Amino acid sequence: MAGNHGQLTSPRTLNTVERRLYVLALRRTGMTYEKIARAAVKKFGADNLPNGWDKLYAYKDVKREIDKIRSTLREDAGEIVELELQRLDEMLVGLWAKARRGNTAAIDRVLKIMERRAKFLGIDAPERRELTGAGGEPLVLRVKGFDEV
Fold first, then answer.
1. Distance in angstroms (rounded) separating the CA atoms of residues 117 and 102
2. Count of other CB atoms within 10 angstroms of residue 43
3. Which of 37, 66, 99, 107 could crosslink 58 through cysteines, CB 3.0-4.6 Å?
4. pLDDT tens digits, residue range 42-64?
């Protein structure tokens, strides 16, 4: 593991991080990848960029940074869901005995907590809905130009 620490702060790694953050910032402004590639050459110099640096490379740098951001957001969202589930568990503990004794207010609260937990975990089956026309008659869809054949 000690060998990895040096790799994280090597000049090459630091240059890559700086370049990727730079191209991502340019992309956020709406700049095209071709313009981003040219701007990176101006800022860093062609000799300090990877061989074959072009708009495709700029695109790949932007994509890698966006993928890292998405991954971080997924991890953060997972941690938030876990925290919320723990909170629901704590609330449930305080109500469970009362609900088991038949306290209807506690039962209602327990059911609300269970409902919220199911939503977080996605364990409820999706609701099935049927669409009907006026007066409950079957809904008829017509595609313009298709029914005229």
1. 22
2. 14
3. 37
4. 999 998 999 999 999 999 999 99
Pick 114 or 13 by higher pLDDT.
Answer: 114
* Rg (alpha carbons) of the chain, rounded to whole number: 28
This prediction has a pTM of 0.51
User: What six digits make up the tokens of 100?
Assistant: 């088991």
Q: Which residues contact 106 (CB under 8 A, 6 or more apart)?
A: 95, 98, 99
Q: Which amino acid is at 97?
A: A
Name residue, tokens 């300090």.
48
Tokens found for residue 26: 């340019």
DSSP string, 55-106: HHHHHHHHHHHHHHHHHHHHHHHHHHHHHHHHHHHHHHHHHHHHHHTT-HHH
